[in-house]
């Protein structure tokens, strides 16, 4: 992969909340110590003679090394691997009837946001494209305080009660003796846990589906998972589920691509986001809510809204758009922003409240607690990225890493010494006043009976998908269980699958070479077509990339014709040739951006062979085209470029294969439509077999 270019050092001030930070650019002034003493030399320690021992009195050496020794902070215990961007949220004003939250109620109201995407299991240096759930954590810096929506790219979770979180994470993390495998669920302890805790089944199906290997953050849905309570200005309450719908559509990698990318470009998602933003293609999502009545039952259409292993099908409660999120600025400093950002489910604003979901309740403790270790004390809200954009007037004082210089002599209430301030804010002052709700019951360690059905929605998810998506689930289960050593665990998981869907179970069992057990899968499962991500009409292709294979004799003007058409659709064109440098020297001179050695198919959404290109049987080129073809991407050629496709075994005229005499409008339109479908799945059965 090409290196992502260095950040633009000439930009006047860092973007987003760090604007007010102590910014220290490498701006050409003298090198100093941390105390501001100018230093003549940072390459030689102070020694007794040029061959002598280093002197203890070298305060600069000790300061430099000591600082370095402490440059790392503990990585997040989960979601350690992440990438983030700044942006803006603009309200449609449509949520005004259900919430008094100012940033949602007012039409056109803009709010700064910082969003961090992550994988769950891997360490900070692990690969982006592993099979896993993705974090989708949004910090809204609203005028009424900070609201964090700490969600995932899947609408359900593995466990129903937060007390099990350490268990599922211990099971998913690498085995404790030799710390492997990294960032993988394909190992014994994960499958041991989920086969014993059948409440995990629904989430496991999502993880094994294409949702576990998103194409990019740009094409990933987000979910608040839990049910929240919204409070309107008049005090009326409703129960909601939050959704992020990507404008670019919901798309995934295929498994072989995910595996290749993990080796070829472990930063695949991070790079895609950073490059896209830098190229002026922001990531865009619509924010939406499903609204359910708050009638005191915490259920809707028979679904327990406090059970985080259940979703509400969109067919029963449509997702109503309430605003738009645009991510358009990369961080200025990874550590200061992406690493130090601290999300907390308890960062709520008036108009948004929590429910009794026992998973959410445990999170309300965990997120504050974890920052104390990770960020070294209770003052993490003073870090630039965590500073609210609303005025802060708390009475919290001192502590590790205190950087505020508080004035006033009476940090307590009531006081008479600081003129009685700060004063309490009641609801009419936009204070956060919890809606009084009845709470009673006996203290028990138990779940309600309505949490017991672990299979109906699991079956709903599986049966709502297209057959190619179901194939992928079967292959993912077969792959993951194929990596499990203990026979008893495989058999137990097959018994779980038998209670979801007999066909799913028997296909996985066949792949593992084991007998398929008989279960009691749910009957009367109502499917939810909205759960499938396969599209039948072309969607947007902004931010996508086309690789054009060419040589010095190719139709270079034709490449420019295609480029102009592609750029008008927000798509970029990149030339690939046998060696680097330039092709031609006239007005249509082309820069070779990748060679057959440096390119890999995962980088591009479509490949085209330019007319006039001499047929080549270079094995790297053949592999490139075959891979793209096998992964059901759009491929094409104009003129005699077709010969190169044929040499790679790409069948002309098949689904998603676009060939024309010239790269004119009809070629471009057909190619862009094929890209808009994301994959030519009709080709899958013929080319993929059981490989992906
Ligand atoms: Fe988290 N989770 N979680 N989680 N989670 C953390 O907080 C935790 C859960 C999610 O980009 C930690 O600051 C518990 C559900 C995201 O910084 C920690 C439970 C969902 C991120 C923690 C859950 C999430 C985290 C680790 C069960 C989706 C990354 C570092 C009760 C709705 C945020 C940190 C970022 C991070 C605990 C369950 C999403 C340890 C105890 C459900 C996106 O506090």
Number of domains: 3
Q: Structural class per helix/strand content? A: alpha+beta
- Mean of the pLDDT scores? 94
Tally of helical segments = 18
Ions and ligands: CIS-heme D hydroxychlorin gamma-spirolactone 17R, 18S
> What's the end-to-end separation, in Å?
23 Å
The CATH class assignment of the largest domain is Mainly Beta
Number of DSSP strand runs: 19
**Which stretches of 5+ consecutive residues score pLDDT under 50?**
7-19
CATH topology of the largest domain: Catalase HpII,  Chain A, domain 1
- Identify the CATH architecture of the largest domain: Beta Barrel
Function: Decomposes hydrogen peroxide into water and oxygen; serves to protect cells from the toxic effects of hydrogen peroxide.
Cross-link (3'-histidyl-3-tyrosine (His-Tyr)): 344-367
Family: Belongs to the catalase family. HPII subfamily.
Cofactor: heme
């Amino acid at each position: 992969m090409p290196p992502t270019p260095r950040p633009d050092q000439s930009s006047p001030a860092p973007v987003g909340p760090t604007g007010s930070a102590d910014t220290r650019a490498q701006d050409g002034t003298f090198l100093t110590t941390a105390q501001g003493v100018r230093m003549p030399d940072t390459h030689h320690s102070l020694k007794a003679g040029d061959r002598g021992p280093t002197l203890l009195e070298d305060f600069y050496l000790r300061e430099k090394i000591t600082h370095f020794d402490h440059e790392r902070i503990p990585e997040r215990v989960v979601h350690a691997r992440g990438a983030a961007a700044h942006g803006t949220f603009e309200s449609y004003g449509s949520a005004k009837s259900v919430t008094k939250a100012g940033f949602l109620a007012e039409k056109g109201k803009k709010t700064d946001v910082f969003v961090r995407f992550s994988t769950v299991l891997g360490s900070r240096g692990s690969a982006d494209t592993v099979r896993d759930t993705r974090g989708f954590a949004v910090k809204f810096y609203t005028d009424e305080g900070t609201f964090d929506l700490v969600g995932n790219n899947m609408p359900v979770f593995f466990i129903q009660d937060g007390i099990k979180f350490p268990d599922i994470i211990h099971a998913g993390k690498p085995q404790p003796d030799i710390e492997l495998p990294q960032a993988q669920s394909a190992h014994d302890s994960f499958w041991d846990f989920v086969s014993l805790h059948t409440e995990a089944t629904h989430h496991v199906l999502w993880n094994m589906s294409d949702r576990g290997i998103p194409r990019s953050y740009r094409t990933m849905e987000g979910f608040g998972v839990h049910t929240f309570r919204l409070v309107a200005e008049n005090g009326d309450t409703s129960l909601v589920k939050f959704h992020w719908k990507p404008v670019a559509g919901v798309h995934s990698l295929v498994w072989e691509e995910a595996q290749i990318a993990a080796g070829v470009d472990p930063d695949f998602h991070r790079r895609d986001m950073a490059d896209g933003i830098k190229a002026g293609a922001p990531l865009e999502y619509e924010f939406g809510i499903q609204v359910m009545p708050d009638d005191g039952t915490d259920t809707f259409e028979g679904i327990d809204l406090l059970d985080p292993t259940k979703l509400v099908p969109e067919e029963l409660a449509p997702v109503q758009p309430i605003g738009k999120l645009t991510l358009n600025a990369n961080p200025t400093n990874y550590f200061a922003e992406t690493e130090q950002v601290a999300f907390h489910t308890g960062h709520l604003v008036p108009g948004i409240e929590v429910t009794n979901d026992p998973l959410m309740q445990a999170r309300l403790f965990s997120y504050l607690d974890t920052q104390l270790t990770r960020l070294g004390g209770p003052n993490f809200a003073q870090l630039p990225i965590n500073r609210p954009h609303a005025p802060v007037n708390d009475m919290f004082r001192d502590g590790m890493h205190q950087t505020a210089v508080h004035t006033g002599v009476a940090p307590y209430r009531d006081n008479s010494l600081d003129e009685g301030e700060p004063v309490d804010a009641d609801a009419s002052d936009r204070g956060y006043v919890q809606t009084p709700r009845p709470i009673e019951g006996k203290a028990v360690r138990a779940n309600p009976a309505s949490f017991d059905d672990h299979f109906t929605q699991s079956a709903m998810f599986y049966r709502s998908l297209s057959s190619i998506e179901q194939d992928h689930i079967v292959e993912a289960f077969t792959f993951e269980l194929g990596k499990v050593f203990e026979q008893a665990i495989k058999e137990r998981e097959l018994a779980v699958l038998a209670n979801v869907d007999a066909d799913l179970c028997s296909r996985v069992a066949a792949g593992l070479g084991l007998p398929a057990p008989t279960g009691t899968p749910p009957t009367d499962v109502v499917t939810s077509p909205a759960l499938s991500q396969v599209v039948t009409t072309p969607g947007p292709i902004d931010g996508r990339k086309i690789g054009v294979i060419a040589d010095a004799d190719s139709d270079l003007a034709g490449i420019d014709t295609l480029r102009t058409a592609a750029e008008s659709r927000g798509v970029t064109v990149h030339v690939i040739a046998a060696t680097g440098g330039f092709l031609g020297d006239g007005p249509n001179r082309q820069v070779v951006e990748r060679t057959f050695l440096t390119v890999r198919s995962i980088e591009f959404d479509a490949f085209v062979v330019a007319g006039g290109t001499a047929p080549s049987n270079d094995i790297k080129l053949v592999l490139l085209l075959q891979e793209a073809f096998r992964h059901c991407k759009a491929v094409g050629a104009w003129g005699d470029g077709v010969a190169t496709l044929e040499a790679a075994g790409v069948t002309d005229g098949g689904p998603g294969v676009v060939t024309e005499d010239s790269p004119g409008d009809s070629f471009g339109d057909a190619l862009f439509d094929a890209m808009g479908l994301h994959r030519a799945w009709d080709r899958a059965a013929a080319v993929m077999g059981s490989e992906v």
